[in-house]
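Discrete fold record:
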Amino acid sequence: MTAAGSQRIDKWLFFTRVVKSRSLAQKLVLAGSVRINSEKIDQPAALVKPGDGVTIKLDRRVLVYRVLLPGMRRGPAEEARTLYEDLTPAPAARADQPAIPAQREPGSGRPTKRERRAIDRWTNDPE
């Protein structure tokens, strides 16, 4: 650790188990996918300290964390969860998917061609 409880962002991401290795954490930071207190950072040596907000853009999701503690090691997941507070908003329900999936009665067999077309019209309805 350096400077009174602060830590490099790449080490912190590795210790909190956001990424599998420290080199992947460095690549994530260099790609511009990490923000500290709403400021985009481009150096893995940027320092993070308790109270900072960290936003991480991964492939299909965005994580929002508040730093509680700097890490000492990459320990088990329970230990990693003590290093941050998860502020990630819940995913919004997608409007293009039906709320209840189509279900058939057990033992009724495969749908006929007519039933498949009706199912397709119901699931692909543009309304």
Observations:
- Strands lie at 7-8, 34-36, 39-40, 47-48, 53-57, 62-67, 84-86.
- The chain is about 25% helix and 20% strand.
- Helices lie at 9-15, 22-30, 77-80, 113-123.
